[in-house]
Specification:
The chain is α/β, with parallel strands linked by helices and 225 residues long. The chain has one domain: P-loop containing nucleotide triphosphate hydrolases (Rossmann fold, 3-Layer(aba) Sandwich). The chain contains nine helices and eight strands. Strands 2-6-1-7-8 form a five-stranded parallel β-sheet, with helices on both faces. Strand 3 and strand 4 form a beta hairpin. Helix 1 crosses helix 9. The longest helix has 17 residues. The radius of gyration is 17 Å and the shape is globular. The two termini are 19 Å apart.
């Protein structure tokens, strides 16, 4: 059986960065499911559709080809054959992805693809519903979180590094809005999976957070980076 690790948590908790490092230490793949939903959102936005329109957004996403590839262990996210990895983290795409991800038809398509990958690969998967929906039987489930203020600060720094001068107040407001949407959507809301280990990284360094997750994996699988 493949090693499957489920990593959930709210926006800005650092899931992608932490998951990259943990997967690298364990020599397994990291599947960023949020990137898949963001690719769907790009497709919807490019089509001139409203991500809040369930019928239109779902029909559009069902017609999109979303693939992932790996280069030196790093995920590339492909939209109809185009590598859109560098376009995924803008505020507009983030907001659209949170809207698109709440539609049941979109989620069914993405969850099926994610489960198929996990059946045949040692893989760490991060997202919002991995331990509750995608990998409910995963032996290791982690819920990674941090305070809203710290998550907003991290996201603001990330945007600054990308050359996007977005006010901190706007980043925090958008983050809180996404929290409400993710936690209150009807289909697969963000919540702590049964049996998950909760790790609050507010006052932890990246290395300390990685070490805590590796300790959980070691206790379960005896596998350590």
């Amino acid at each position: 059986m493949p090693i499957n690790i489920a990593l959930d948590g709210p926006v800005g908790a650092g899931k992608s960065t932490i998951a990259d490092e943990v997967a690298a230490r364990l020599s397994i793949l990291h599947l960023d499911t949020g990137a898949m939903y963001r690719a769907c959102a790009i497709g919807v936005l490019r089509s001139g559709l409203d991500p809040q329109d369930e019928a239109a957004a779902t029909a559009c996403c069902e017609g999109l080809q979303i693939d992932v590839g790996y280069e030196k262990g790093t995920q590339q996210t492909l939209l109809c054959g185009e590598d859109v990895t560098g376009l995924l983290r803008t505020p507009q795409v983030s907001a659209a992805a949170s809207a698109v991800a709440k539609w049941p038809g979109v989620r069914r398509k993405m969850v099926k693809a994610q489960q198929e990958l996990a059946r045949t690969h040692d893989m760490l998967i991060d997202g919002r519903d991995i331990g509750t929906r995608v990998l409910p039987d995963a032996k290791v489930k982690i819920y990674l979180t941090a305070s809203a203020e710290e998550r907003a600060r991290r996201r603001w720094l990330q945007l600054q590094q990308q050359g996007q001068n977005v006010p901190m107040e706007e980043v925090l407001s958008d983050l809180l809005a996404r929290d409400r949407q993710d936690m209150n959507r009807e289909t697969d809301p963000l919540r702590v999976a049964e049996g998950a280990t909760i790790i609050d990284s507010t006052d932890l360094t990246q290395e300390e957070t990685v070490e805590k997750i590796l300790a959980v994996v070691e206790a379960c699988y005896g596998k350590r980076g």
